[in-house]
Amino acid sequence: MFGKKYLKQAKLLKKGVKKFLRYKQDILPSASIEKVKEKLSGFEEAIATKEKEAIKRNAKALTDACEEVMPPSSYPGLRENLEVIFVAVIIAVGIRAYFVQPFRIPTGSMQPTLNGIIGYPQDDQFEVPGFLGRAFDKVIEGRTYVDFTIPAGAKISSIAERTRFKFFTSTRIAFADPSMEPVKVGVSRKSLLGDGNGSDLGLLKKLSLQFYPNGRGGMSPRVGGHNRISEDLRIRGYVDTGDQVLVNKFSYHFRRPQRGEVFVFNTGGITGIPLDNPAQGSQHYIKRLTGLPGDRLEIRNGDPKLYVDGEPASEEFVRRVWKGSGNGYRGYGYVPATKTDEWSSGVGNGKRMYSLADGRYMALGDNSYNSSDSRMWGSVPEPNLVGPALMVYWPFEHWGRIP
Fold first, then answer.
1. Residues forming beta bridges with residue 289, ordered by sequence position
2. Between 30-49 and 52-69, two packed helices, what is the crossing angle to 10 degrees?
3. Tell me: the pLDDT tens digits for 139-196?
4. By Cβ atoms counted within 10 A, which residue in 2, 192, 325, 378 is the most buried?
5. Could you tell me the pTM of the whole model?
């Protein structure tokens, strides 16, 4: 137990070399095997003498012999770099799985706190910047410029979105006439066509197109009837990407969620939220956490406040939403009863009240008049909570902590 350290190390080396010989005896030439065995025999004799210098000398001869018989690895530099990349990927996957996860804001329900994907159509006088200007705006603001023309006489047959490597999204516009070249636009289909909230380039409105359900909660790429385009239709403008945020997946394991913070949750089991694609399972939403288990919440018709236990919510960032004060917030909007929500109606249906049960949380969007949230589909169960949003990491124009 208390033997000399160099003797223990020597015995470990002997054991390792014997294992090496067993593993390589079917691969290496017999001459190479014999050479290593010869050096191993000399090393064992040195161990028997217990003389430190002899052991050290024979250990070097043994390790040199093992290295000589092994063929050199091909492209050692490349192999080393690949190993480093592989380890980095494993670490990144582990961090994402247990600690921090990136999340992109897809809609405008949290504006102006967080920006969703917003399209800005422009008139014929608008000019797209040059390459350097576009590159700068892409890095700083996450902006993609759009300038394309649908030729006169065209009739659109499909508008399909494609995402490559989970990052690069584009939309392909194909025409009924196969001789006409399809148009490829470097933005999402929703940014190009619109979703009714006006934050798009407005192609649907200009062509009076209609889309049809695809049976999976989404929309088919098939296009409804529209008249042939009488003259060239030019679409100009730009689309700003949704804010990219980091979500702390670790925090709720050690503390309770707090009223007023921005948080992310999955929609599994919330019956009022339809799945875009059932095959992909639940989605992730980001909202303001405005109610905790045991809270009695109230929204009154014509009153922008959110009431908690009969008093206006006092948390700084919830109060900022209902006070408005000319900074883009307009208060909390009253929503009549729906078939899927869990709110109760007040006297004369002029207010809505909700008492949160154990393990249930209220999620409301800061952009209340353009947000699908707990006013429509009820509370969020505790197992669905992912974590609080930490910060915006891109685009750099919005970089910083989330209020």
1. 363
2. 170
3. 888 888 988 888 888 888 888 888 776 667 888 888 888 888 888 888 888 788 765 5
4. 192
5. 0.66
**Topology of domain 243-401, CATH:** Umud Fragment, subunit A (2.10.109)
Domain at 5-69, CATH from 1.25.40, 1.20.1270, 1.20.950, 1.10.40 = 1.20.1270
* Nearest Cα residue to 199 out of 154, 138, 242: 242
Residue pair 156/226 in contact (Cβ under 8 Å)? The answer is: yes
Q: Hey, what are 55's tokens?
A: 């052991």
| 5-69 and 243-401 in the same fold | no
Locate tokens 């670490």: which residue? 91
**Residue 112, preceding bond cis, omega within 30 degrees?**
yes
Alpha-carbon dihedral angle through residues 390, 395, 397, 402, given to the nearest 10 degrees: -10
Residue with tokens 């492209």: 75
Q: For the chain, what are the domain ranges?
A: 5-69, 118-240, 243-401
User: What is the per-residue pLDDT across 59-109, written as a single tens digit (0 to 9) for each?
Assistant: 888 888 877 776 655 555 555 566 566 556 555 555 555 677 888 887 888
Query: How many Å is the Cα radius of gyration of the chain?
Result: 32
* 3-state SS, one letter per residue, for 249-271: CCHHHCCCCCCCCEEEEECCCCC
Secondary structure of residue 377 in the 3-state scheme:
helix
Rounded to whole angstroms, the Cα distance separating 240 from 137 reads: 9
**Could you count the other beta carbons within 10 Å of the beta carbon of residue 81?**
11
Phi and psi angles of residue 141, each rounded to the nearest 5 degrees, phi first: -115, -5
